[in-house]
């Protein structure tokens, strides 16, 4: 059975950039609904006892399992998103990830511009990710529930660009929300840990 993970901080911890009201609806209603729906859909199927990531990988691209994929992937995406933010977050990364961003994008400012442009340009609902793929950092925009697990890429950081993630606080100003995400919310320690683990796994392979 898939369980709804708790937020890694208090519901009001990201205010004023993301309100307690937004987090309450987003986590307590939207995220919970994906968990409840996924559990109902996988009951009595071959997916029932599989880990969440395996459910996502095995159901991806299968028309008959599209609802299972959508709900399972959205559970994973949202959990990753909560950890991609932190109170007193934002600013710039440090260490090896900072060096890699400089190497692959030219500068942190150029990365920020590209990340915000990808998120703003994502038509409809979706996500914008910083990923590691074949040794290079990339920006990946995905629609709806899609995520890096189905693209063979390692997620380092993500921003949710579904309207319910920001509409109560930013209305239709997605661009402002994305600027605030990188400037005030991004959990670079989380991204740095993901980058370190991915780099170690690549060396060990």
UniProtKB/TrEMBL annotation:
SUPFAM superfamilies: Fe,Mn superoxide dismutase (SOD), C-terminal domain (SSF54719), Fe,Mn superoxide dismutase (SOD), N-terminal domain (SSF46609). One of its GO terms (molecular function) is metal ion binding. Residues 93-194 form the Manganese/iron superoxide dismutase C-terminal domain. It is an enzyme of class 1 (oxidoreductase). Coiled coil: none annotated. Mn(2+) binds at residues 26, 78, 160, 164. Keywords: Iron, Metal-binding, Oxidoreductase. Residues 3-86 form the Manganese/iron superoxide dismutase N-terminal domain. It comes from the Bacteria. The keyword Protein transport does not apply. Transmembrane segments: none annotated. It holds the Pfam family Sod_Fe_C. Its EC number is 1.15.1.1. The keyword Oxidoreductase applies. It catalyses: 2 superoxide + 2 H(+) = H2O2 + O2. Belongs to the iron/manganese superoxide dismutase family. Destroys radicals which are normally produced within the cells and which are toxic to biological systems. This is Superoxide dismutase.
């Amino acid at each position: 059975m898939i369980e709804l993970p708790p937020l890694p901080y208090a519901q009001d911890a990201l205010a004023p950039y993301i309100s307690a009201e937004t987090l309450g609806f987003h986590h307590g209603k939207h995220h919970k609904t994906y968990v409840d729906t996924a559990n109902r859909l996988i009951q009595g199927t071959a997916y029932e006892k599989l880990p969440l990531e395996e459910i996502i990988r095995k159901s991806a691209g299968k028309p008959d399992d599209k609802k299972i994929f959508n709900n399972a992937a959205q559970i994973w995406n949202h959990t990753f998103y909560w950890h991609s933010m932190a109170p007193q977050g934002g600013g710039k990364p440090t260490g090896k990830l900072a060096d890699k961003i400089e190497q692959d994008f030219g500068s942190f400012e150029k990365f920020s511009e590209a990340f915000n442009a990808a998120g703003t340009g994502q038509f409809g609902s979706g996500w914008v990710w910083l990923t590691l793929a074949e040794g290079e950092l990339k920006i990946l925009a995905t629609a709806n529930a899609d995520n890096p697990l189905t693209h063979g890429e390692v997620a380092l950081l993500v921003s949710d660009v579904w309207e319910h993630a920001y509409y109560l606080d930013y209305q239709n100003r997605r661009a402002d929300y994305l600027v605030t995400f990188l400037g005030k919310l991004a959990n670079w320690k989380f991204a740095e840990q993901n980058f370190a683990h991915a780099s170690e796994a690549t060396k060990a392979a």
